[in-house]
Amino acid sequence: MSLDRTTVKTIATLARLRVADDHLDALAQELSTILHWVEQLREVDTDGVVPMTSVAAMTLRQREDVVTDGGDRGAVLANAPSPIDDYFAVPKVVE
Q1: SS3 category, 95
Q2: What is the rounded CA–CA span in Å between residue 89 and residue 95?
Q3: Per-residue model confidence as pLDDT tens digits over 24-66
Q4: Contacts of 24 (CB under 8 A, 6+ apart)
Q5: Is 87 helix (H, G, I), strand (E, B) or coil?
Q6: Residue-wise over 33-45: b if at least 16 C-beta within 10 A, else e?
Q7: Which of 21, 34, 61, 79 has its CA 20 to 30 A from that of 72?
Q8: Which pTM value belongs to this model?
Q9: Could you give the residue ranges of the DSSP H alpha helices within the chain?
């Protein structure tokens, strides 16, 4: 699959990217090369290959699920720039 400059311009418009007209041909060539490479990957026989998330077997370290100093309301609110009663006050972001 290869892309022409019109298709690349349409893709750029849909992606809200500004691409100068003099770069469209080079970008079309580059994207076409990428698509051709992806087409080549489809030809690889992956039957019987177990999906993996990493090339190295790893397990994540987990910590104990215990309450820490986050339970000290006064110490936590001491970091708040302008607490109101026992709560953090934040500026309104939605009108």
Answers
A1: coil
A2: 16
A3: 999 999 999 999 999 999 999 999 988 888 888 888 889 898 8
A4: 5, 8, 9
A5: strand
A6: eeeeeeeeeeeee
A7: 61
A8: 0.51
A9: 5-14, 24-42, 73-77
